[in-house]
Task: structure prediction
Amino acid sequence: MYILVWTAHFTRAAKNFAKRHPELKKKVANILRDLEKDPFQPHLKYHYLGGKYKGMQAISITDSYRISMTVMITEKEILLFDIGPHDEVYR
Result:
């Protein structure tokens, strides 16, 4: 089991995301629950990022929306950084 650590930016972004996309609220809650259990589950589409985001990872909510994060395997923590459209998360 991992501990999800919500950064201040992620908390604000998640609130805004929920307001803009109420139809995805339940899906995001389920994804966060699954992420807490095991971030490497295939349906989460866990992937490493490159370039200026090297060292970070992301998971997919849908084809258009992502959650960016850093997984600290040794401490079993997942730092959540951003949630939103693909192009905005990777700005």
Summary: The mean pLDDT is 89. Residues 28 and 61 are 7 Å apart (CA to CA). The chain has one domain: 3-89. The two ends are 30 Å apart (CA to CA).
